[in-house]
Write a structure and sequence with these properties.
Elements lengths: L39 E4 L7 H14 L1 H4 L49 H8 L15 H15 L13 E4 L11 H13 L3 H4 L12 E2 L5 E2 L20 H10 L15 H14 L11 E2 L4 E2 L4 E6 L11 H4 L4 E4 L1 E2 L14 E8 L3 E9 L47 E7 L23 E7 L4 E6 L7 E2 L1 H4 L3 E8 L2 E9 L19 E9 L11 E2 L3 E5 L5 H29 L5
Parallel strand pairs: 7-10, 7-20
Antiparallel strand pairs: 1-2, 3-4, 5-6, 8-10, 9-19, 10-11, 11-17, 12-13, 12-18, 13-14, 14-15, 16-17, 18-19, 18-20
Helix pairs in contact: 1-4, 3-4, 5-8, 7-8
């Protein structure tokens, strides 16, 4: 169902942002049977796994898991400082995704891999979308997954014990017994009111994009974390590869997320209220134009990608208003973005993981609308210490120092702030490249196969460059900059919207060695770049896409509108003639 309600709660926010911290480092909350939160029941601790299971799990762990989670399970493996969010530290027994009450250990039974009754098994099976934790289904057998969890829960969880009946209890959300409330307009409205009343917007933002308290939150280990962006349900850690399932959202609001500032709402909301909240949050997740969920690629846990960015014909001037019908009716493309990590300075802690692109063209120009979520509007203070053409910018790339102060992950938000920015790169001599050969995607290959780059920055600048290699500074094209135009740029409630217009090109008059000619009906190789200034992104420290293709849709010929009418009229006349002939025959007449 497509949500007609938009979360506009900014005016209702309090001036002070309170943070309710939930500690998961001590024993779980104990409830008397008659004071259990609504929807919960008392559960029983599972028996300890066998010694054989634990020993077999140790072998699996030191083959597959140690590289991120570390030798002692402290989340400090060799790759930990290059990952965001950080790998789980098992030592305190603090786990995020559970069916158990806030602060309690998750469900785990080495003999019971049942969905909804074995939290840790489901985490290893489905992974944690939006993080580096992959799905191990198809890589590890069911038995191996149970074995490695047997080792983790007995040997690497050091401060608590899964079988300690004196210190631990399990209060289990009976999600399978609860019936969701239909996401009616009334339910969505109540949910929108509740997220304001319960102060969810103080962290998640006025439009639910995670921009309310974006850079002041830390987890129990002191690492910087960010509130969930409700518009990207495929990044919800506990989505279990089923991001549009409202039950997963209900579970998170009921149990909280241990080790983070996200509390449980089980003690201050009813079951019905939590369903309303879950319905509303679920309604905000990006959908198709008809309101249907986006198709999710199970191999990536992201929306499926169409690598063709189609540009539609606009008669007359291309509108600068993103709410214009021409823009609203254009199909958008999901562009997956990843951190640039092949050349220094590398972007291991990438904040921009996708952008949405639309395109229109007319007789002389083509325009692209870029939209992407960014929790902060970042504009550099003063003049940047390098020229706009500089690629080899002087940004110190921190060397990982696992477990020490000063590591990348522990100071994620202490970078110098630069400009937010977006850019697109097209192959100039794309016709000379025999398919499927393309120029090097990062700023071109060489002088023979240059690329055409147009870059917008949050300080309002719009520049054109020629790129001839990843390690070479750009050549700024001052003459061409007179031809490109910024139609619109706005940051609002955690989202940028930027519209850039550039010439289509003329193969008879343009400078072929520098300008991309956007020829109708052809596939032009295109790459997108994005920079989050608050993340210290500049130069090659950025987010980058794979190669996509810009395609100018040929206009529908007039005949396509005339022929159906002519054919329809012909069919009607023919049917009339046949019916008349039959009628005359029955009357003994001939034509």
């Amino acid at each position: 169902m497509k949500n007609s309600f938009s979360l506009k709660a900014g005016a209702l926010l309090t001036t002070a942002f309170g943070i309710i911290l939930v500690s998961g480092s001590t024993g779980g909350l104990a409830f008397a049977q008659n004071t259990l939160p609504a929807g919960f029941k008392t559960g029983a601790l599972a028996p300890e796994p066998s010694a054989d299971m634990i020993e077999a799990g140790k072998r699996v762990y030191f083959t597959k898991c140690v590289w991120c989670h570390g030798v002692d399970g402290a989340g400090d493996g060799p790759g930990a400082d290059r990952l965001w969010p950080r790998p789980r530290n098992f030592n305190q027994g603090t786990f995020k995704i559970r069916h158990t009450a806030s602060g309690e250990l998750p469900l785990f039974d080495a003999k019971k891999p049942t969905p909804g009754q074995n939290d840790l098994f489901e985490t290893v099976t489905h992974g944690l979308p939006g993080s580096a934790m992959p799905s191990w289904e198809g890589i590890l057998t069911e038995e191996q997954r149970l074995q490695v969890l047997s080792f983790v829960t007995t040997e690497l969880v050091k401060d608590r014990k899964f079988t300690d009946k004196q210190s631990e209890s399990q209060t289990v959300l009976q999600l399978g017994d609860l019936t969701p409330i239909a996401p009616t307009e009334e339910s969505l409205k109540k949910g929108a009111e509740l997220v304001v009343e319960k102060k969810c917007v103080e962290c998640h933002g006025a439009d639910g994009r995670g921009d309310g308290n974006a850079f002041n939150l830390k987890d129990d280990w002191g690492f910087s974390i960010q509130p969930a962006n409700w518009h990207k349900c495929w990044n919800f850690r506990g989505s279990r590869q089923d991001p549009y399932n409202v039950k997963n959202i209900f579970r998170t609001f009921s149990t909280g997320v241990n080790g983070t500032p996200m509390p449980s709402f089980a003690d201050n909301t009813t079951v019905e209220e939590r369903w309303h909240i879950a319905n509303f949050v679920n309604s905000l997740c990006e959908r198709e134009a008809d309101g249907k969920p986006l198709a999710i690629d199970p191999s990536a846990d992201k929306p499926k990608i169409n690598f063709v960015v189609s540009s539609g014909l606009a008669v007359g001037e291309i509108p600068a208003d993103p709410e214009h019908e021409l823009w609203k009716n254009r199909a958008r493309r999901f562009i997956a973005m990843g951190g640039q990590i092949t050349h220094k300075p590398r972007n291991f802690v990438n904040r921009i993981d996708d952008i949405w692109v639309k395109s229109l063209y007319n007789d002389t120009h083509i325009a692209f609308m870029f939209q992407w979520d960014d929790r902060t509007k970042s504009v550099a203070e003063g003049k940047l210490p390098w020229e706009p053409t500089s690629v080899n910018v002087d940004i110190k790339e921190q060397e990982p120092k696992t477990g020490e102060e000063g590591s990348i992950a522990s100071h994620q938000n202490n970078y110098t702030v630069y400009n937010d920015a977006i850019a697109m790169e097209t192959a100039v001599k794309w016709k000379e490249l025999p398919s499927p050969i393309k120029p090097r995607y990062l700023f071109g290959s060489n002088e023979q196969f240059p690329v055409d780059i147009v870059k917008w920055e949050a300080d309002g600048s719009l520049r054109a460059f020629k790129g001839t290699g990843w390690d070479k500074d750009f050549e700024e094209r001052f003459n061409y900059e007179d031809s490109i135009k910024l139609l619109h740029s706005e940051w609002k409630d955690g989202r940028w919207t930027v519209i850039v217009q550039r010439p289509l090109g003329d193969k008879k008059e343009q400078e072929y060695d520098e300008d991309t000619f956007f020829e109708m009906g052809q596939y032009i190789p295109t790459v997108f770049f994005a920079w989050d200034g608050h993340n210290g992104d500049a130069g090659r420290k950025m987010a980058v896409s794979a190669f996509y293709y810009t395609f100018l849709e040929p206009p529908t010929p007039k005949e396509a509108y005339i022929y159906p009418i002519v054919i329809a009229c012909g069919v009607v006349l023919l049917e009339g003639w046949v019916l008349t002939r039959r009628s005359n025959k029955r009357k003994g007449k001939t034509l």
